[in-house]
Automatic annotation (TrEMBL):
Residues 116-216 form the TonB-dependent receptor plug domain. It is a multi-pass membrane protein. Residues 28-104 are annotated as: Disordered. This is TonB-dependent receptor. It comes from Bradyrhizobium aeschynomenes.
Length: 797
């Protein structure tokens, strides 16, 4: 079937499904998309808390009042150049949330200050309360709870996949700021310091710049609120020796107009692989100051200190060599080693290696990050708002490990090889935008124009030699790194982006929404080895990409919104701007997406569901291969659907679930030597199906303390480990159980207004599975975490 026919079928299916869904909406008894009275919403949120709430005012004819009639930017996006000095507390926002947070105003969806339901794209928000309830301790945990998003379980290997794309085709932002390719900038964090995690699916360069092909993930830290000081703390353990703790405080100070927020968390997570762990300290704080009702300013700072003894993967082993130790249900297929060229035939994971660490004794990964941000927001009049933010980001990263563990069927041993690299990464930037609310030809209109500028300095001392040796499959001396010699790579990036977005309301229920981004940037690179520049270096290259989005939203019935959009994105074709070689095609990959769907709030705001269908194509693609090499892979096509739903049938019960289906494949992917074609193959780490779901029940009168019991289930379909599609990571299903006990005030916790004890069992069936693969290291895979028991106590006071 042609792409055009596929898209036509998907669009028709979406319209039919949306039309069917509109029928119950007509009987939704006052369920609207942003206006709900207390009587309409007797129940709190089902799954997530809303970070912000939409505000709607009355209708007049003046341009100033027209600004109030439309969605005002009072719910400030964290990605905006400045954050609002006054924001609702997580608890107050959470109490007004809809089941899927459709009334939240995510920073990532648009600069127009639209709610998730008003954005013509699939947008998800996971709030702080859900992070707490679902036990999403790390950012990797949180990401896997979203619709159709997959990731590895190992905290040191941060890789995400979304809508048929992975790695650097999924942008990761911090408070709306893009700091570079996900492959090396994404850092596993404790979620305690976060207010929410936002997801925008599909090409989204308009919102987040280069690289957003599969989508964008935005981590938003907690910000101050105006009101009494609120404190919170937690401490948790698991049976492997993991320890987590955190403390946070925020509210108004004795200085009129000055609000604060401070959070600190500390984690020591002990891995399920021998002698692996990571430690993370995260400190964040912000001050908001209201000089007047129309002028607000803020200053924010963060620091992260990450230290890990990493897990670098488990080798694929011939089933014949493992014998009775061969495992079933983890991997299947056959391969020839990409490292030593030995024939492995049918492969397995040897049972004796399920917890074996092939890294050297002195292997480590360390990262130190710091952020400083400051800005203001100024309502010049009722129709115009000016915002500006400056920021500085600095990171020092160090990898010092044995990263290759490739089984050799000739020697019956595991060939190892070391890798070292260090990063000094510094970014200075500014984002300034102006929002105008008015009328065009008598129609309500909102226009946002912005300019972004940034300067990046990147220094990369890396290994010039790669020591290694063979070791037995089991029972070996792990040894040390050994001799290290380095070479120096540098990159400087100067970027400017001009953005314009507009929302034109043709009727009260139908709006056109679009935008353009013009983003010229220049890369200067050097590479020095043994005191001399390598051939082709230094070099300089400039690009001038233009991307955008055009779409509509139609609230056909109260609470039921149809949408469609066309969006584009660009990114560096060769995986990473910092790997790009002058001998490669120095052009950008370009992507386009068609998407249609429906979003519905019904049953007096107690139920909410969304449906989206998409068709994405990315051209001029390079694909990762063994040995840090890249192949020209032509194009990638991806089509699929996503459905998410949540409901609270009774005040005591919650039900939620999501399912995603994607068909992703290469096109025009022929190896340069003509030996093989990978056209029609699926990119690595892309499952056809991902399903998440869960339920909980809170006993209304247990006779002693309030108790809540629940479970969640996750199913991830088959995935391939490399472009060749010869080794399959088999589908798996895991289930978690949890119980909450909310304690009344007792002498031990006399000052706490809320005390909760949480008990959790992860992967209750102890399923062994393959979680992720790294195409740069195709002879090994990353295993998923086994059964884990946890206990946690949290307090609010």
């Amino acid at each position: 079937m042609s792409t055009r026919n596929v898209w036509a079928s998907i669009s028709l299916a979406g319209v039919m499904l949306a039309g069917w869904s509109a029928m119950p909406a007509a009987h939704a008894q006052q369920a609207t998309s942003g206006r709900r009275t207390t009587a309409d919403t007797p129940l709190p949120d089902v799954t997530v808390d809303a970070p912000r709430q939409r505000q709607v005012a009355g209708r007049t004819s003046s341009a100033g009042q027209a600004a109030k009639r439309m969605l005002r930017p009072a719910a400030r996006r964290a990605a905006a150049p400045a954050q609002a000095a006054a924001q609702p507390t997580p608890s107050s926002a959470g109490s007004a949330a809809t089941p899927l947070n459709g009334d939240a105003t995510p920073a990532i969806g648009s600069r127009l200050g639209l709610t998730a339901r008003e954005v013509p794209a699939a947008v998800e928000v996971i709030g702080a309360e859900t992070l707490r309830e679902q036990g999403y301790h790390t950012t990797v945990d949180a990401v896997k709870g979203a619709t159709g998003v997959s990731a590895g379980d190992a905290p040191n290997d941060v890789g995400f996949a979304m809508r048929g794309f992975q790695g650097n085709q999924v942008n990761v932002l911090y408070n709306g700021i893009n700091i570079g390719p996900t492959g090396f900038t994404a850092l596993t964090m404790e979620t305690f310091n976060l207010d929410r995690v936002e997801f925008l699916k599909g090409p989204s360069s308009l919102s987040s710049g280069q690289g957003a092909v599969g989508g964008t993930i935005n981590f938003v830290t907690k910000t101050p609120h105006t009101g009494p000081v609120q404190n919170e703390a937690f401490v948790g353990f698991d049976q492997r020796g993991t320890f987590r703790s955190g403390f946070g405080s925020g509210g108004s100070t004795t200085v009129p107009g000055l609000d604060y927020r401070f959070d600190i968390s500390r984690t020591k997570e002990v891995g399920f692989i021998d002698d692996t762990e990571f430690k993370n300290v995260h400190v964040s704080g912000q001050l908001n100051y209201r000089l007047s009702d129309s002028f607000k300013t803020f200053v924010a700072a963060e620091f992260k200190d990450y230290k890990a003894k990493p897990y670098e993967g488990t080798p694929l082993v011939p089933a014949a060599d493992s014998g009775t130790n061969a495992t079933a249900g983890i991997v299947s297929g056959s391969k020839i080693s990409a490292y030593n060229s030995s024939t492995l035939d049918a492969v397995t994971i040897d049972r004796r290696t399920l917890s074996t660490n092939y890294n050297v004794i002195d292997g480590h990964k360390t990262i130190k990050e710091s952020w400083v941000r400051s800005g203001f927001e100024w309502d010049l009049n009722n129709a115009v708002t000016l915002r500006s933010q400056i920021y500085n980001y600095n990171a020092s990263r160090d990898w010092y490990n044995n990263e290759i563990a490739a089984y050799n069927s000739l020697t019956k041993q595991v060939d190892r090889e070391r890798f070292f690299v260090h990063h000094n990464h510094n970014i200075v930037g500014n984002i300034t935008d102006v929002t105008w609310n008015g009328r065009i030809f008598g129609l309500d209109n909102r226009l946002v124009g912005s300019i972004e500028s940034s300067h990046t300095d990147f220094t990369r001392p890396g290994a010039a030699n790669f020591p290694g040796e063979p070791v037995p499959l089991v029972g070996f001396d792990r040894g040390t790194y050994g001799d290290l010699r380095t070479q120096l790579q540098t990159a400087t990036i100067d970027s400017v982006a001009l953005n314009i977005e507009d929302k034109l309301k043709l009727t009260d229920s139908f709006a056109l929404i679009g935008g353009l981004r013009y983003n010229p940037f220049t890369l200067d690179r050097s590479w020095i080895r043994n005191g001399a520049e390598r051939p082709g270096f230094p070099y300089s290259k400039s690009w001038q990409p233009l991307t955008g989005r055009i779409g509509y939203t139609w609230e056909a019935l109260p609470g039921t919104t149809f949408y469609s959009q066309y969006a584009t994105a660009t990114d560096i074709s060769a995986d990473s701007i910092f790997i790009l070689s002058p001998t490669q095609n120095l052009t950008l990959s370009d992507s386009r997406s068609y998407e249609t769907g429906v979003k519905q709030l019904l049953w007096n705001g107690r139920a909410e569901w969304t449906f989206s269908a998409f068709d994405i194509e990315r051209n001029n693609v390079y694909s990762a291969q063994a040995g840090q090499q890249l192949n020209l892979a032509g194009k990638v096509k991806s089509q699929g659907i996503e459905i998410a739903a949540a409901v609270r049938p009774t005040p005591e019960s919650k039900l939620w679930g999501n399912v995603a289906y994607v068909r992703a494949r290469y096109a025009d992917y022929d190896l340069a030597d003509g030996s093989r074609s990978f056209s029609g193959n699926t990119p690595p780490n892309i499952p056809a199906v991902i399903i998440n779901g869960g339920a909980s029940y809170r006993f209304p009168n247990p006779g002693w303390w309030p108790v809540e019991l629940g479970f969640s289930v996750r199913h991830v379909g088959d995935r391939w480990s490399t472009d060749a599609n010869t080794v399959k990571l088999l589908a798996y299903t895991t289930a978690d159980l949890f119980a909450f006990v909310d304690l009344p005030k007792v002498p031990l916790f006399a000052t706490a207004t809320s005390t909760r004890l949480a008990f959790r069992v992860r992967n209750v069936t102890d399923k062994r599975y393959a979680a992720w693969s790294d195409p740069f290291y195709p002879d090994q895979i990353f295993l998923g975490a086994p059964r884990t028991y946890e206990v946690e106590a949290s307090f609010k006071f």
